[in-house]
Amino acid sequence: MKPAPAEPRDPYQPTGGSTAFHVEHYDLDLTYRVAPNRLTGTATLRVRVQRELTELALDLVGLAVERVTVTGATLVRHQHRARRLVLRLAAAVAPSTVLTVTIRYGGNPAPAPSPWGPVGWEELHDGVVVASQPTGAPTWFPCNDRPADKATYRTSLTVDSPYRVLAHGVLVSTRARASTTTWVYEEQHPTSTYLATVQIGQYDRMLLAAGPVPQHAVLPAALRPAVQVGLAQHRAMMTLFIELFGPYPFEQYTLVVTPDELEIPLEAQGVSIFGVNHLVEPVEGDERLIPHELAHQWFGNSVSVASWQHIWLSEGFACYAEWLWSQAAGGPSADAMARLWHGRLAKLPQDLVLADPGHARIFDDRVYKRGALTVHALRLALGDDPFFDLVRGWTSRHADGSVTTADFRAHCAEHATAAGGQRLARAVAELLESWLDRPRLPKLASR
Predict the structure, then answer these.
(1) Does residue 444 belong to any structural domain of this protein?
(2) Are residues 5 and 149 in the same domain?
(3) Which residue, 227, 198, 193, 62, is CA-closest to 128?
(4) Is there a contact between 316 and 367 (Cβ–Cβ < 8 Å)?
(5) What's this model's pTM, rounded to 2 decimal places?
(6) How many helices (H) and strands (E) does the chain have?
(7) 124 touches 107 (CB < 8 A)
(8) What is the CATH number for 43?
(9) I need a labelling partner for 222 at 20 to 30 A (CA). Which of 182, 243, 417, 437 fits?
(10) 158, 32 in Cβ contact below 8 A?
(11) Residue 1 pLDDT class (50, 70, 90 cuts)
């Protein structure tokens, strides 16, 4: 048998993920004991082969594989080293073949190191927080860990009964047995692995607003009064974003507030995770994090990036949402915020290309703020009504999908042509080129 040609690697995903196959569905049957930090589980993956292959390489880190079976092909052996679980097959498997891969595994999960610090499954003082962006998902389940490989999920997690489990998706059942409870969630929206999550704690569930979509907080009971104050305007925020961005993309939205302090909040599918420090006696400026994480449900979660190279499409829009909410809440206008940050960025090194910032700089704050400025520059060029039509069209057309910067350019060209013909389309193309492809910060047009 000829060895398969080496798979081309995405420079923004140098250690994980594969384009040779697509995981259509993850079925995770997990048991977790909080005190000893012991996770055991069986993951069943429905895999569709994308191009002929003789092995599958999945991502799994820090946990021991006990048994692997494959239906639809003959498994010769498996090998688990570092982050990669490699399944070697007896013969080449043709494209479009569907395989069922079942992996039994377990161990003491822990965050995985990354260039941006530890990511993934992390113990709290009493419970667990899972914040997987960008490469932490393999700390708790075997997966094809790249943002474009979006799948549906069923997550069943059994824990000691005092603890509540929150996972992405919709809670479909709970079952109490003696001292444990099993929580089962189903996620029908295609979800990137880094947005899959479980949160475990002695939490209450609090309704924030019943509409325009259900909004809840999951939090320690003692934090309820302070969080009610901190999130008093959440319904108004959701209403504004639905008006500006289009329908909320999921069935509900849940904010988790951990009893521990966290460095930063983080989004998951239909969920945002905040530390107690962000919502209870927050430092000045932390209020912007609430609209930022909510906006990610449209930008990043429903409309996901195909590669981390295009992260500005997620973070730029989420940052711009902060400015939109500032204006709606009676603070500085979005235009004032844009000009404030343009002045600040102008004083920083002019060496970042937004459309291709480099793997090490995907979380550089300039990506966030210059991304938001690009969005604002586009709004100034188009005018408010065509701009927000463009945004709603973007979230509608690409809902549950993955996008690139090239997709966004094409979308802008289409809307600019409709709004003002070829002259406006050429102007918008030149504007995007100056903001996305050149390191020097362009001037911001007058309002």
Answers:
(1) no
(2) yes
(3) 198
(4) yes
(5) 0.96
(6) 9, 21
(7) no
(8) 2.60.40.1730
(9) 182
(10) yes
(11) very low
pLDDT at 286 over 90: no
> Could you give the CA distance from residue 323 to residue 292 in angstroms, rounded to a whole number?
9
Amino acid letter for position 180:
T
Give the model confidence (pLDDT) of 92-107 as tens digits: 999 999 999 999 999 9
8 A C-beta contact, residue 76 and residue 90: yes
Give 207's Cβ-side CA count (13 Å radius).
6
CB-neighbour burial class of residue 19 (10 A; exposed 0-12, middle 13-18, buried 19+):
middle
Asked if residue 324 lies in contact with residue 292, where contact means CB atoms within 8 angstroms, the answer is no
Residues in the chain: 447
Residues 6+ positions from 294 with CB-CB distance below 8 Å: 234, 237, 238, 241, 253, 272, 321
Domain that holds residue 343: 304-436
Choose among 237, 250, 282: nearest CA to 264: 282
Residue position matching structure tokens 């530390």: 275
Boundary of a domain, candidates 178, 199, 220: 199
- Tokens found for residue 247: 């329908």
- pLDDT, tens only, 219-262: 999 999 999 999 999 999 999 999 999 999 999 999 999 999 99
Give, as one character, the DSSP assignment of residue 119.
B
